[in-house]
Amino acid sequence: MYNNLMQQKENNQDLKVAMISMHASPLAELGGYKSGGMNLYVKEIALRLSKLGVKVDIYTRNDRDNSVEILELGPNVRLIYVNAGPKKKLDPLNLVQHIEQFVSEVENYRNFENIQYDLIHSHYYLSGLIGMHISKLWSIPHVTMFHTLELAKKIAFKDKLESNLRIELEKKVIKDVNKIICASSHEKDIIDNYVSASSKKVSIIPLAVDTNVFHPNDKYLSREKLEIDQDSKIILCVSRIDPVKGIDILVKSFAQLNNSQLKLMIIGGYNAPNPYQAKLLKLVKRLNLQEKIQFVGAVPHGDLVKYYNASDLVVVPSLYESFGLVSLEGFATKKPVIASNIGGLASTIDNEVNGLLFEPGNIKDLTQKINLLLSDTFLNQKIVNRAFMDVNKYSWDTAASQVYNVYSILLTASKKIKVVS
Q: What pLDDT sits at residue 419?
């Protein structure tokens, strides 16, 4: 497939894509309350698409007092800041009222630059709503990727969430869009549950990991650089600090582990804790685990590899994940991964083959799985070796090639429709 795409690259140097990522800037600090895998995905897929000859403009909301309007992220990839609403972080649902202004500003910029885009690729339901408007305005196809769906989160939280508005907005996007990219078959099934027969629009393209960044390194040297005790057993959790990530489950499980050498390192979060992080800090104090559990805070993505290599075990305790990039980063650094048997994690991890799965939210099950991997050296090594082999299936270049193929099929169909009409 890649050779065919390279040939298409030579024949179509001018393919231009307007990528919409309203609330998730590819340059945002990862690991915060609302910044994580989606931000990384937007950046990586755009840069890899540019290698195939695609020109990508990423439109994102200016959520800070930023005088810079355009940044070059790489050859043929630009990040364009759009003024829509106050220049500060807002909850996604509070951004709905600023969609019309965002659309207007994007259209003004396009007219000013006299750009003719071929296709829109939106990320998350907010950007999908923007893509709906722009697609009609410009008469071009629209591809979207939700990254996470409210219905899936409602199921994970046993219907305790209140964002029925978001569910209705997601349904609108599903019905309107030309093509949907999902990271797993589980996400595809949920979309079909939303809107009957909509799965015909879906292409499944797994996320990826950059093995030039994430690769094994000596644990002793990694710990020396991070000033971590060499005798400790380190459990690592890399995550946004958000209730859906289930970090409280891991903390409660950790409290039941009977090993004086164990430490838990949690990477992610802001310097000023959000309500969930404040709740976690209180929980740690109540369990008297302040000396055992460290909240590291957000770490630049390229520096995460040192923490993976310094650890003994990676845990992904999420109540829902559309995919779960952390599991791949654990695979790539040859660390055993334990993850919730939910969503895309269950698509990536084959239980007791390349990782261990536990029942979501089940503290006892997670505790047993951690004890198993810490005590069974043979199983630990078997899982690590298989996972390291499997990681080769998940490259950003492969993902970009598959996305490019979705573009090509959609544009071919679009041109045929235009000819017929």
A: 37
